[in-house]
Write a structure and sequence with these properties.
By secondary structure, the protein is of the alpha+beta class. The protein is built from 5 helices and 10 strands. It has helices at residues 4-14, 21-35, 95-112, 130-133, 166-169, and strands at residues 40-45, 56-62, 65-74, 78-82, 85-89, 119-127, 153-158, 176-183, 186-190, 200-207. Strands 1-2-3-6-10-9 form a 6-stranded mixed β-sheet, with helices on both faces. Helix 1 (4-14) crosses helix 2 (21-35).
């Protein structure tokens, strides 16, 4: 078993911020390689037992155990100098789509591990946008069922409200089905800036296969 929480905590001391999701993916994979040296790691791996086209961000194989990891890195506008390196993060709005895509990752990770006893999956969401972890003020938004706030219990069929626009749901019309039950817990990652959007937190969901 890979202790991802410990690995992420160690990573935060050397890389408190990333330029992009690809930067986060590569750096986390390298940190796993450093700390779990007998683990074979592949990026953008297509599980051979799945008929449809689907690629896992990080795929680890160690002593007969498969670990599949899906990542999301969503940012608000932040310009900061960290140890002489400039990070100019984009303002990625559309939190409703960000939530949907993350929960779709959870559904897929369950599918990858179906009927596998040697499997563990992880969905990781890293962000400096408190709209993701904060408790919603309005529970009637079109993406209310996709909320991933601190303390939420996640399970069952999740769908857009009927009032969701065509532009919002394009390419994401299907309901999401979460077979198991997950209690969502956000953890502090880093604070590279004391200003607005200077704090990063992450959500780690350990996904069950069988």
């Amino acid at each position: 078993m890979i202790d991802l929480i410990k690995i992420i905590e160690n990573l935060s001391s050397t890389r408190p911020i990333f330029h992009s999701e690809a930067d986060f993916q590569h750096t986390l994979a390298w940190k796993i390689h450093e700390q779990v040296q007998d683990c074979s790691i592949r990026l953008e791996y297509k599980p051979p037992h799945l008929m449809r086209r689907y690629y896992v961000d990080i795929w680890c194989f160690r002593e007969g155990l498969i670990t599949a990891i899906e990542l999301k890195y969503k940012t608000r506008r932040l310009l900061v100098n960290v140890r002489g390196e400039i990070f100019d993060l984009l303002n990625q709005s559309a939190q409703d789509i960000g939530r949907y895509d993350f929960l779709k990752d959870i559904q897929r990770l369950e599918e990858v591990g179906l009927n596998k006893s040697n499997y563990e999956g992880y969905g990781i969401f890293l962000t400096n946008d408190s709209a993701y972890w904060g408790f919603p003020r309005d529970d009637q938004t079109v993406d209310a069922e996709f909320r991933i706030y601190e303390g939420r219990t996640l399970s069952g069929k999740l769908n857009w409200k009927l009032s969701a626009s065509e532009g919002t749901t394009r390419g994401r019309k299907e309901a999401i089905h979460i077979k198991n039950v997950y209690s969502l817990k956000w953890r502090d990652y880093s604070e590279p800036s004391s200003g607005t959007y200077g704090q990063f937190r992450y959500l780690l969901v350990k996904v069950k296969g069988k």
